[in-house]
Amino acid sequence: MILLKYSLSNIKCDIIGLSEIRRKGNEIIEEGNHIFCYTGELQGRHGVGFLIKKQYKNNIENYIGISDRVCLLNMKFEKVTISIIQVYAPTSEAPEEEVEVFYNQIDEAQNLARGKLILMGDFNAKIGQRKSPENSIMGPYCYGKRNNRGGRLLQYALTNKFTIINTIFKKKVKNLWTWTSPDRKYKNQIDYILSNNPKLFTNIEVLKNSIFPSDHRLLRGTLQLKNLRKSRATFRGTQTDLSNEAKRQSYLKALIDKSKIIQWENGEDVESFYLKREKELSSLYKTTNKMLKKDYENHRKEVIEKYLVTTGSQKKAYKKLNTEKKWIPTLNDPTNKSKSQTRENLINIASDFYRNLYQSENNTDNEYRKYEIQLDNPIDPFNGSEIMEKIEKLRNEKSPGPDNIPNEALKVGKDVLIDHITILFNKILERQEIPKNWGESRIILLYKKGNPSDINNYRPISLLPSMYKLFATCLEKRIATNIEANQPVEQAGFRPGYSTMDHIHTVDQVVEKHMEFNRPLYLAYIDYAKAFDSISHASIWQALIQQGIPTIYINIIKDIYEKSISRVKLDRLGPTIYIRRGVKQGDPLSPKLFISVLQNVMKDLDWNKKGILIGTEFLSNLRFADDIVLFAKNSKQLEKMLEELNRASQSVGLQLNTSKTKVATNSYPSPIMVNGARIEYVDDYIYLGKQINFKKTRHEDEIERRISITWKKYWSFKEILKSKLPLKLKKKVMDSCLLPCLSYGAQTWIYTNKIKNKIRSCQRAMERSVLGIKVKDRQRSEYIRRKTKIIDAVQHTKRLKWKWAGHIARTIDNRWTKRVTTWTGPSGNRRVGKPKNRWVDEILKIAGTDWTQKAKNRKRWRQLEEAYTREGTTPS
To answer: Where in this chain does the record put each Reverse transcriptase domain (predicted)?
Structure first.
């Protein structure tokens, strides 16, 4: 693609049809000055598409990939709509059945066309010279002899009233052929432009000066459309300016120098000379192609190496190199239950979806009314150091909002701006109002997983004004203390000192101990539909009041949401949407506001005696933001808890997604109904990134899953790990990217010999792959490790577990992580035979039964860590 764009840089082409692009997928990609649309079913085979100048992006109505041989582009220019069908026909060796399928696909594209038709591409057909009955579909300017496929093309043109545009403009014979054989001996005309409206065209020509290494020549048609916006690009003409003596002398000197290069051989005729030059030019094309590819590869390596050395971040390197922006190709249209590909329809579908989503179901007149300020609740004004601290923490290279002010602008100008910003922020505190334009945002859609045509499978991220985000960050710090004080240990999301590992470990220990003592356990994994986008604003104000947030701050947050408007941004902007419910994803305030509302929901549930008894208290639920898991001792209790949670959630606008909410158990799967829907039982569930199940092999299953994920990650870094970059940079990628991927959740693993061998085998295989060493080379592991010098995965993961055990032992906030670890388990009977390994057994073996006390001595615990990771015994 790089070479193609380079080849076309000096050629005036606004829309280019592409045949045999050999890419798999159906994508629309915006990169640099072009929009690249393509369709391919298999990598390296067939494929069609278009390359469109970016200035025409708003003229694109839709792109439809019919197959890997036919695609359609509809473009609207004021009152004129053009439908371009690009094709790549089967070759002459293909069976007739395949040819018929090809023409049927063209018919399908015609049925989806919206305007004046242009049919073009590589037809692999020779139409030869015109015959008298064919005057209506072709002109006299033809090349070569007709073959059967040419006859089939002419038959199709007659049936559909297409004119073959190549043949109606007078050109020299040498300017008619479009394809040449590899040895340059044979030339044919097999590429055509056809149209049912030939008057659109003012010219057609075969271009001979493209440096793209292809056996086809570029065929260019010129259209004259009324009021068509002309290309902004400027193209240099071939005429030389010889208006003064200095330029004439310079021209003569260059002419003399160049003419010395041309050497005629005695007896060489014109044709021989031309063919010789043509071969030299062909060789030059190939050399240029190789040099361009090599140059681009070197450029990528230089950028990757630079970022790995200076920042250690391969992510920043790829972000620098990846200038592509993929468009959403299709969306399901709820009005007619079909897929829409029209660009205008797509933006309207997305805008309507979020307009309905953010529309309040209980929009009362006083929802945004300010509260009376409490005299006993004074507020300190913002000071410069408080704001400066937040400015310095702003992240670079983040997309700006509607104001187009990047964070870097605030950071660079902080010393000049700080006094003015402080005055502004304190004015906002005084008046309890934000500037109106701070309420504007742009919604971009990030694909999650599932059907890409389903808009529910996209996450809306709000791009907000940079000044607003700075203010919101300062405000968030002020309200965080009160909100944090009101959060129970069950909530670990968006809280300092908590992580996903707290809840993963808790769930894992509860499962382990119920399996050990053969006691029934029921788990429900809750899924809310669009949780962050659904909570009512009234529930936010109520939660903030109940959690003791000062009235001035509540009034400012009310004003923020009263002024909140947004527009969906795809390849174009949608109409204005008023935000009347939900919190904006991307807003610094949103996480704290959401967990405040969720806490109000949960605290009103009478669950003090529900769930599972651990010690003297019941564990009923764990929350990581909106990721909730419920615990119950039987299915009836769990069903009742789900019903109660559903009712309480609805009161604040949250809707339980019964199709994605799942239940798991080690007992009998009795039916559980919520809102008339039956909740599905599952054997495995990925909770906060770790697979949870009740199988005996659950730890081995999780290790294998992590190994599979790590290999996928490995091959995503193929450009680095399989390149000639220095080994120390590859080590950095393996230690900083692959090892964390492999070891996620390692704090909760049980390290049997089988599991340790799986981890070692994975890491050694990756080391061999990086070094290019095969198993049959029989190189010892010690030799390979001396070369790579990477961190040993088994020791690293065991060290993570040991540090985590020490962290658990030292916690003093009564969180469930520690309570379930020291819990002996539910009352019950173990199975007969050898007991299964438990998480704590490895800790007990090294540190003894009083390990929770020893862990409080950090120095002693570090000494024991060395013994554990070396798999030795307690040091004396």
So the answer is: 427-692
338 lies in some domain:
no
Q: Decide if 476 contacts 662 (C-beta within 8 A).
A: no
In which domain, by residue range, is 426 found?
Answer: 343-603+621-687
**Residue 371 and residue 478 in one domain:** yes
302 shares its domain with 159: no
d(CA 583, CA 540): 9
Report the candidate in 587, 652, 664 with the shortest Cα–Cα distance to residue 626.
Answer: 652
Residue 201 in contact with residue 222, Cβ under 8 Å?
yes
pLDDT one-digit tens code per residue, 615-643: 999 999 999 999 999 999 999 999 999 99
State phi, psi for 714 to the nearest 5 degrees.
Answer: -55, -50
- Supply the pLDDT for residue 366: 41
Pair 189, 147 in one domain: yes
Q: How many CB atoms lie within 10 A of CB 753?
A: 7
Helix axes 590-603, 537-546, angle to 10 degrees: 80
Domain boundary among 223, 257, 279: 223
- Tens digits of per-residue pLDDT, 414-433? 889 999 999 999 999 999 99
Range of lowest pLDDT (118-132, 269-283, 463-477): 269-283
Bridge-based pairing state of the strands 331-333 and 34-40: unpaired
Asked if 377 and 429 count as a contact pair (C-beta separation under 8 A), the reply is: no
pLDDT at 259: 55
Number of domains in the chain: 4
* 874 in any annotated domain: no
Instruction: Return d(Cα 191, Cα 170) in angstroms, integer.
Output: 17
Q: What is the CATH number of the domain that holds 48?
A: 3.60.10.10
